[in-house]
Amino acid sequence: MTVRLLTELSAPAIADALGPDSVLVLPTGAIEQHGPHLPVATDLITAQSMAELAVAEFGEELDLWLLPPLAYTKSNEHHWSCGTFWLSAQTMLSVLHDLGASMVKTPARRLAFLNGHGGNSALLQVAARDLRIAHGLRTFTLHPSLPADHGGKSPESELGLGIHGGHEETSLMLHLRPELVDMEKAQRWVPEQLTEYRHVRFGGSVSFGWTSDDFGPDGVIGDASTATAEHGKEKVEAMLAYLGEAFAEVAAFDPGPRA
What is the structure's pLDDT at 1? Predict the structure, then answer.
């Protein structure tokens, strides 16, 4: 697998290789607790792995270039746990602004955040607009797949509430990095009490501030016990197919009126 990693080029080579429609892909992950069965780098591994696969598969066709991932991000919903390392909202916005200002020195004018951590989503959208205004960049925020609290789906066994360390993420890691998963410690941690609420719930019309220990001491929100590597493989294939379509639109996107 050949990945078009921008940092492997010299500065003059970058200037020669890139054009205004080149897309720089920045994976954004997180370093945060994922329960007793998954590594704290789960979101980082997911974002980086999917970015590498997408750029390797579609990079030549769509002029995609991979940047090194942003590992430390907005993860203070897991602040209570050993192993969580996070940036404040202001620090993360400042980092993203500085990276965007650096990008302006290249010929590329399209920047895509490929995000593996739901806690980053709102800030990435803010940064995308600020970079558009400050530097005229075309900016985009993508997720390999949407978590349940962002409008995505989780299995019926999770009652639509599987958003962290449950069936989906555990299956992904069983496929991507099985040596880092301890299925003997994987359990069902579904906050069934949230089904009592129609509007105030994950994916409901009313959002709420939360930390992951609100739902129990293990910090997982979902059912990890049902995860399989086979499902993880299917999910990676589906996410890659989606990213091919999404990046094709990113590479061509122009919101202006047609002449």
Answer: 59
Q: 68 in helix, strand or coil? A: coil
Rounded CA gap, 108 and 105, in Å? 8
If we measure between CA atoms, which residue out of 257, 253, 161, 143 comes closest to residue 214?
161
Residue 170, SS3? helix
Summarised one tens digit per residue, pLDDT across range 203-215 is: 889 999 999 999 9
Dihedral sign, CA of 146, 235, 172, 158?
positive
Cα separation, 183 vs 58, whole angstroms = 34
Strands 188-189 and 138-142: unpaired
The pTM for the full model equals 0.96
- State the maximum Cα–Cα separation within the chain, in Å, rounded to a whole number: 61
- Model confidence over 236-253: pLDDT tens digits? 999 999 999 999 999 999
Inter-residue contact 139 to 132 (CB < 8 Å): yes
Q: Identify whether the C-beta of residue 108 lies closer than 8 Å to the C-beta of residue 23.
A: yes
Q: Which two tokens stand for residue 153?
A: 């789906």
Strand stretches in 16-137, DSSP E: 23-28, 64-66, 110-115
Alpha carbons 82 and 73: distance in angstroms, whole number: 16
